[in-house]
Amino acid sequence: MPVLHDLVATLHTASGNAALVLGATATLAVLLYRRYRASQLNIPFLKFEDGDDSRQRYVTDSGSLFKIGYEKYLKHGQAFAFRNYVDELQPQVVLPLKYLHELKNAPESKLSLKRFSELLCENEEWLNICISITNQSMQAAHALRASWPQWARWAAPYVFKPVKEVRANQRRAAEMLGPVLEARKAAATGEKSGPPQFNDTVQWLVDYAEGRGRKLTLDLLAQHQLFYAIASIHSSTLITLSILYDLIDERNKDAKDIILAEIEEVQREHPTWTRPAVSKLVKLDSFMKESQRLNFVGHVRVTRVAKVPYTFKDGLYLPKGTMVQILHSTLQHDPDVFEDPLTFDPWRFLRKRQVAGDENKFQFDSLSDIETEFGAGFHACPARNSATASIKLILIRLLTQYDIKFDAERQRRPRNIGHDSATFPDPTTKILYRQRTTGGGLKE
């Protein structure tokens, strides 16, 4: 028995040493490959230089790194790379604005975006999937990043419960989209008399695929539809909440009163809120745009992935798989772009629109090189006008029918929360409200 015990102990030690050696070898391989990828990019590689360059630092403090990169490189027309903690083998690249035109117009076969029907819009199961997929997918992604190494994540859809649940919802969404896609194909081939002219995301994807000779599978259609659900529900909710925080901030009380007067004036002329009526709320629009300028939802915009090795016209080379993006956040705080950029000026964009010839510019849903809130190029949000109108209608309802304020402990909007390149208003902040028609105390 002692011999057997010694043998087992020896084997255990050997296996432990082997595992240690294997782990060290794998770590070294990753580090060497990261250095190799960075050298292929031939651009500065930015990292935290204060002694803490940990993975967690990139999760919680990317904003400070973006500020350094903006001042040191982007303002001088120089791209920079930084660590991609999600995929250690693929550094991320941030491009200066001079690349925006080429980036947004590059064919999808080279630089690609990572990516409802009337039959489903009232289907409770479909709506529940669309609503739940946001938190479900984000929680799964965070859990996966926290507990699974990059090389093992291929197995997660088969054994990791949070990811399995997301995939189950994707499969169910694909099943539900089957009849919709078949109906569109039938209408396109004339199997139905007088086919309706569809104008929704399903049809956009069908037309896009057919125009390029590609096959649109149900699984791919479901992935796109759920992506749009996340974009439309999650982003619009965060933006609305962020603007509301600014509206009830004690520093903006006068601006809120002016906006309320504008709403009442337009409503007297237009008792029913139509899109032309909503478009007359120019002061509300200016306030919303200033709110998003200072309290943006996300640091970066126009994210693309190089599907093949790609070279820009000036010679900047991207290896296959490189993720590139345009930095949006720090640009909004640049004194060379905006006068007194750190001051909340609710009528900043209203004054710009009062300049002759600029009446239709500088709106909440406008697009330009410095206005990339809704993306750029072919992948700019096609429903940005509808999203803007929806946010305004929600704010109109809240401002005209409720008294809303922060609780007694707070008079000003809370600091935003950051996670990786995402930023969003603190959803745990307590607010008090009461319906104006009923009176009574404020409810939490």
TrEMBL record:
Any Pfam family: p450
Annotated binding of heme, by residue: C381
Lineage: Eukaryota, Fungi, Dikarya, Ascomycota, Pezizomycotina
Ranges that cross the membrane: 12-33, 226-245
Cofactor: heme
Protein's recorded name: Cytochrome P450
Domain of life: Eukaryota
Homology family: Belongs to the cytochrome P450 family.
Alphabetically ordered keywords of this record: Heme, Iron, Membrane, Metal-binding, Monooxygenase, Oxidoreductase, Transmembrane, Transmembrane helix
CDD domains given in the database record: CYP503A1-like (cd11041)
One function term, GO molecular function aspect: heme binding
